[in-house]
Design goal:
- With 67 residues, the chain is mainly beta.
- Helix content is 0%, strand content 51%.
- It contains no helices and 6 strands.
- The strands form 2 sheets. A 3-stranded antiparallel β-sheet has the order 2-1-6, with no helix packed on it. A 3-stranded antiparallel β-sheet has the order 3-4-5, with no helix packed on it.
- The radius of gyration is 13 Å and the shape is flat.
- The mean pLDDT is 90.
Length: 67
């Protein structure tokens, strides 16, 4: 059995030079919401509605994996 993850969520952002940029986030993936502000611009809202990311998309919220 694994201990709980401190940062159980990954924000995967628009790739630069073919490599996706990723950031670890606290909280569960279902606590985050992605909104499309403009055609290619996305805003990620975290728990409590704070802006976690605002930038080019697409973006994804993914669960972090053990191992």
């Amino acid at each position: 059995m694994h201990p709980p993850l401190i940062y159980p969520t990954i924000l995967r952002m628009h790739p630069w030079f073919g490599v996706p940029e990723e950031e670890l986030l606290p909280g569960r993936p279902e606590e985050y919401r992605i909104e499309q502000a403009h055609r290619d611009w996305f805003v990620v809202l975290g728990p409590g509605g704070q802006i976690v990311h605002s930038g080019l998309g697409p973006v994804q919220i993914l669960p972090a994996r053990h191992g």
